[in-house]
Write a structure and sequence with these properties.
Helix content of chain B: 25-40%
Largest interface: A-B, 20 and 17 residues
CATH architecture of the largest domain in chain A: 3-Layer(aba) Sandwich
Distance between the termini of chain B: 30 Å
Structural class of chain A: alpha/beta
Largest sheet of chain A: 6 strands, antiparallel
Low-confidence stretches of chain B: none
Strand order of the largest sheet of chain B: 6-5-9-8-7
Order of helices and strands of chain B: EHEHEHEEEEEE
Shape of chain B: elongated
Largest sheet of chain B: 5 strands, mixed
Strand order of the largest sheet of chain A: 4-3-6-1-2-5
Mean pLDDT of chain B: 92
Number of helices of chain A: 7
Strand content of chain A: 25-35%
Oligomer: heterodimer
Radius of gyration of chain B: 18 Å
CATH superfamily of the largest domain in chain A: Nucleotide-binding domain of ferredoxin-NADP reductase (FNR) module
Number of domains of chain B: 2
CATH topology of the largest domain in chain A: Rossmann fold
Chain lengths: 323, 161
C-alpha cells in the first residue's frame, strides 16, 4: 500500500442540506483541475483543530469524473471522538478556508459485470450512492435504491433522489413506522445481482446476514462502513514501538492509529474504518483484538493488525512498523 | 500449463440454497446422479441439454427460474462445459458458483493459430488443420473465451519465409 498524494483545496461553497448535513464544495487551491475519480470514491480530509486533529474519509458525491471541484456531504455528529472532525467541519470551517485532502481512492466500486445493482443506504450512508446512481443511469444499468432514514426533515437528499430516479427508489422512514427489511429486499432478486450497503454497522450486518441466509455468494455483497465499529466495550492500553522507542497510551475513545499520530509517528492510512488495510502493522508482543474487515484469519495469525480499528486484549501491545 | 483447466468435480456448494445440474450425454447424467446421491440436497433440479438445437432455449428457461440462491453444476464433454459456463458468466454468475466435471468425450476443440480455424473433435496430439492444411501440435494452452486449445505449427522449419 502506498500513501496517496496530498493536496490543498479551497472551500468554495458550504450549503445546508438538512439541519445536520452540510454540503462542501472544494476546489484546487492552486487552481486547475483535481484528479479524476470513479463512483464510490472517497477522499481523506485532514482537519487541524487547535487541540486535536482528525483525518476523516468522505465519499465524493455528484457526477463521477467531475474534476473542476469535489463535493462531500457531512453529517454533524454530536458525540464520539472519531467523529469530532465532522463537528469541526460544521462549526469551524468557512468558505475560503484551505484544507488538505488525499487524492480519491475507491474501496466501494460497482461490479462491472453485474446484471442488476441493488443499493441499500442507512442515513448519511446514502452519500456514495449519489455518484453510483449517476454512473448507473449513464450506463443504462438495471438498479434500485433502498434508503432508510429517521425522519423526512433529517433524511438527506431523498427528495432529489425521488425526483431524479423515481421508480428506482424506495424510502423507509422509521419515524413513520416504515422499516427496511433486508430479507424482503434481497429475496427474488435475479441471477447476477450485486448488492451494495453503506450505513451503520447494524445495517451492514443485517444485509450480509440476510444474503448468506438466502444463499447469495458473499462476493456479490459489497459494503462500506462510514464509521469504525462501536468501541463501547473498549479499555485503555499501551502501545510500544521498539523501533522508534515510542510508548503511548491508547485511550478508550481513541484508536492505535490516532494515538500514534498524536505521538508524531507517521502511519499511512486511508479509510480509517478497518476496510482498506493501508494502516497495517505487525504485532510483536501482546494479544490483538481484531476489529477490522480486511484481514483474513491467516493474516491475523501471521501477526498483522489494522491500526485504525483493532485494539488490545490486555495491558500492552508491542508493534512493528510495516515493511 | 497454467491455462489447462482443472475440473474439481460436482461437490455441493453449501452456501447455495438451490442446486441446478446442467448436463449433456448419458455420462453427464451419471455424474450428476452420483453427486446427488452423495449429498441429496433439498432443492435440486436437473436439466438435460443434449440437443444443440434446443440448448439455448432450454438454458434460458432454466436461467429465468434461477436466482441468487442458485449454484450450477455442469457435467458433459469438455466443449459443453465451456459453452455453458461462458453463457452463465455472461448472465452474471460468478466462477465460484459454477462447478464442472468432464463426463464423456475428451476430444478437444483446437484453434489453429495460423488461420483461425476451429477444428472440432480433435483426439490426437498432432493434427492437420482442416482449413490451411498445416501440421499442428495441440498444446495444453486453453483459451476460455475461445473455448478451445491452441494448435501451433509443429515444425517451425516449415514456416514460410
Amino acid at each position: 500500500m502506498t500513501t496517496r498524494a496530498l493536496q490543498k483545496v479551497r472551500v468554495a461553497q458550504i450549503e445546508g442540506v438538512t439541519p445536520s448535513v452540510k454540503r462542501f464544495t472544494l476546489e484546487s487551491a492552486q487552481g486547475g483541475r483535481l484528479p479524476s475519480w470513479s463512483s464510490g470514491s472517497h477522499i481523506g480530509v485532514t482537519l487541524a483543530g487547535t487541540e486535536l486533529s482528525w483525518r476523516n474519509s468522505y465519499s465524493l458525491i455528484g457526477t463521477p469524473g467531475e474534476t473542476r471541484f469535489y463535493q462531500i456531504a457531512v453529517r454533524k455528529e454530536e458525540v464520539s471522538r472519531s467523529k469530532g472532525g465532522s463537528r469541526f467541519l460544521h462549526e469551524q470551517v468557512q468558505v475560503g478556508d484551505t484544507l488538505e485532502i488525499s487524492a480519491p481512492g475507491n474501496y466501494f466500486p460497482l461490479a462491472r459485470h453485474a446484471a442488476k445493482h441493488v443499493l441499500i443506504a442507512g442515513g448519511i450512508g446514502v452519500t456514495p450512492f449519489l455518484a453510483h446512481l449517476s454512473a448507473l443511469r449513464r450506463s443504462g444499468a438495471n438498479c434500485e435504491l433502498h434508503y432508510a432514514f429517521r425522519d423526512r426533515a433529517e433524511g438527506a437528499f431523498w427528495e432529489q433522489l425521488c425526483s431524479e430516479y423515481g421508480s428506482h427508489t424506495r424510502f423507509y422512514v422509521s419515524e413513520e413506522g416504515s422499516r427496511l427489511s433486508p430479507a424482503a429486499v434481497l429475496a427474488h432478486q435475479p441471477l447476477g445481482t450485486h448488492v451494495y450497503v453503506c450505513g451503520p454497522h447494524s445495517l451492514i450486518s443485517a444485509v450480509s446476514g440476510a444474503a448468506a441466509e438466502l444463499g447469495w455468494p458473499s462476493s456479490h455483497v459489497h459494503f462500506e462502513e462510514f464509521a469504525p465499529p462501536p468501541v463501547s466495550d473498549s479499555l485503555p492500553f499501551l502501545v510500544h514501538l521498539p523501533e522508534l522507542s515510542v510508548e503511548v497510551k491508547v485511550g478508550i475513545r481513541e484508536t492505535i492509529l490516532e494515538a500514534l499520530e498524536r505521538a508524531g509517528v507517521p502511519i499511512a492510512s486511508s479509510c480509517r474504518v478497518g476496510q482498506c488495510g493501508t494502516c497495517e502493522m505487525h504485532v510483536v508482543g501482546g494479544e490483538a483484538d481484531h476489529r477490522d474487515r480486511c484481514l483474513s484469519e491467516g493474516e491475523m495469525h501471521e501477526g498483522k493488525i489494522i491500526a485504525c480499528v483493532s485494539r488490545c486484549r490486555g495491558q500492552k501491545l508491542t508493534l512493528a512498523l510495516p515493511g | 500449463m497454467k491455462s489447462k483447466p482443472v475440473y474439481t468435480g460436482l461437490e455441493l456448494d453449501t452456501t447455495a440454497r438451490r442446486h441446478l445440474f446442467l448436463i449433456s450425454g448419458q455420462l453427464g447424467l451419471d455424474a450428476a446422479q452420483r453427486a446427488l446421491a452423495l449429498s441429496s440436497p433439498a432443492d435440486a433440479a436437473l436439466v438435460t441439454l443434449d440437443d444443440p438445437g434446443s440448448r439455448e432455449t432450454r438454458l434460458c428457461e432454466a436461467l429465468t427460474e434461477a436466482g441468487m440462491e442458485t449454484a450450477f453444476y455442469l457435467a458433459g464433454p469438455e466443449i459443453f462445459l465451456w459453452q455453458i459456463s461462458n453463457r452463465l458468466r455472461s448472465a452474471g454468475v460468478e466462477n465460484r458458483r459454477i462447478r464442472m466435471e468432464i463426463a464423456g468425450s475428451m476430444a478437444r476443440r483446437v484453434y489453429c493459430v495460423v488461420c483461425g480455424t476451429m477444428n472440432e473433435g480433435v483426439t490426437t496430439a498432432m493434427y492437420r488443420c482442416e482449413n490451411c492444411g498445416r501440421e499442428l501440435t495441440v498444446r495444453d494452452h486453453f483459451s476460455r473465451p475461445l473455448e478451445a486449445y491452441m494448435g501451433v505449427i509443429a515444425d517451425l522449419g516449415a514456416l514460410p519465409t
